[in-house]
Amino acid sequence: MTTFPLKADNPLPLEEKYTFLQTASKTNTAGTIIGPLLTGILIFQEAQLTALLIWLGTMAICVSFRAYIVFVKNKEPGLSTQKKIFNLTIGVFSVTMCWGLGWLIVVPTIPFNLQCLYLLMSCTAVFVGLYGYSIHRPIFLCFALPIFICQFTISLIPPLIFPWPILLGEFAFSVYTIKMASYFSDSWIRTVSLQIQNQMLNRDLEIERNAAISANTAKSKFIATASHDLRQPLHAVNIYLDLFEPQTLNPKDRINFFQIRKSIQSLNSMFNSLLDLSKLDAGSADQIQKPFELIELVGSLSRT
66 burial class (0-12, 13-18, 19+ CB within 10 angstroms)? Predict the structure, then answer.
């Protein structure tokens, strides 16, 4: 299947990508606020107060910065789509970097059960943003890597804070995240590619349809304009037939004559109807408003 490369020289897919990322960022804003608050409340009594306050304060600044980019900065006129995507990348990176900071300064100070809780919350943060950010590789890397790098740094430096099954689960989750991000990205590209191809096909069909309508209208106008000239041959035949005197013909020739005249009259009637329809189709017919009895029209149609 042919797909459209999502690069700067292809502005339509890039604009579609930004719209998707912007929508995902707005949707995830509530989670960026609730997640740290809930985590702070759950570990407040066991965590070192200074480290927790530093983490929460930094998180509040970064969440506010991200919200400013999403709801204010990217709405400024004159910003290119690439610049808007770059702004979103910085905003997302700042928040996930704070989750990584929590692994470095908060997690070592809390007991094992709360360390598992922080692991769960950070993995949830990654999972929630996985689909929305996976369509753009730079923003996904800035979203996931700060958490994974800091998480594995703390988890693998002796003494190990997690037993090997949890470490194995961390590794499996990180591989799954990267794999699903690639799948979502490919799926989105195929979807947008098909959407753009359908739009192009619809546009081509519309052009062809308009061309066909224009050609048909031009043909009808030509026939309507030339109707007088087109009628002349039939008029000439009728005049020629009128020159004959049927009573002077022998019986056989008289029968043939009347048959020919009847055929010419039928042809003339059909030709007149065709030319009248061409005038109607071309919009060049004179409109005459005239009252009529509907029963007479229906009666004439029923006799045909």
Answer: buried
